[in-house]
Amino acid sequence: MLLERGFPFTAFGQTDGDDENFSYVDIDGFVGMQKIAGHLAALNHKTVGCIAPPPDLAFTGKRINGLRAGLAQAGVPLNDAYIKSGDLTQKSGYELGGALLDMPHPPTAIAACNDLMALGAISAAQARNLVVGKDVSITGFDDIPMAETSHPSLTTINQPIYQIGGMLCEMLISQLKKETAGQQHILLEPSLMIRQSTGDVTHSNLKAIPNQTKPGPIPVP
Fold first, then answer.
1. pTM for the structure as a whole
2. Measuring CA to CA, which residue among 29, 34, 35 is closest to residue 14?
3. In this model, does residue 19 exceed pLDDT 80?
4. In which domain, by residue range, is 132 found?
5. What is the 3-state secondary structure (H, E, C) of 35-54?
6. Mean per-residue pLDDT for 158-164?
7. Chain centroid to CA 8: how far?
8. Of 133, 102, 134, which Cα lies nearest the Cα of 118?
9. Nearest-5° angle of CA 56, CA 72, CA 18?
């Protein structure tokens, strides 16, 4: 609608097409999840689960494909049975993290595609008496403030959201002042924040813990 009306705007994020004739700033979700995959592979994880965003969001495919490609580089498959679609909330991370951990052959690592779902998965693991960072590794994406102070602290991908907000405003002001010609497309490479929620799989006791441990009440809103 804005394009049809010639209304100046900038966007945080891309579409899923190749005809993006508008200005945007985005984080490279494909590369971010590649970095997560490389980190987990370096910790000797061979079975990795993924809690994905809703399939209709533009960045969902980029993040899943980045994780898949990064794992493939290390010779680790990402089985479709280990991919669960959530709704980006902590509650869905709890439910789907529990579903992954209750599988007959549970993953030793869970890569959630945002921090809230990762924090929910941490709660699900702890409800099953698993030590996160030892028995199972869990990662997120976003680096929200809670990620650094959670127990354990969350390994995740940093999005410099305040920097991005400033860049978007500067781009829009330049458009309004007609200082720039055409569209600006800025794709930032994210950074991996390694914290306590990931560890070497050789220390895991996951296989020795029954899969049918009954979880307690959901300790998240």
1. 0.88
2. 29
3. no
4. 29-159+194-208
5. HHHHHHHHCCCCCEEEEECC
6. 92
7. 31
8. 133
9. 40
Residues 98-141 pLDDT 10s: 999 999 999 999 999 999 999 999 999 999 999 999 999 999 99
213, 138 Cβ separation under 8 angstroms: no
SS3 127: helix
Q: Are strands 191-193 and 48-52 parallel, antiparallel or unpaired?
A: unpaired
The total of structural domains in the chain comes to: 1
DSSP three-state, residue 28: coil
Domain CATH code at residue 204: 3.40.50.2300
pLDDT band per the 50, 70, 90 thresholds, residue 96: very high
| Residue at 146 is within a domain | yes
**Cα distance between residue 157 and residue 43, in whole Å:** 17
Residue owning tokens 């800025």: 186
pLDDT at 214: 46
If you write DSSP's letter for every residue of 41-101 in order, what string do you get?
HHTT---EEEEE--TTSHHHHHHHHHHHHHHHHTT----GGGEEE--SSHHHHHHHHHHHH
- Is 171 domain-assigned? no
> Does some domain include residue 180?
no
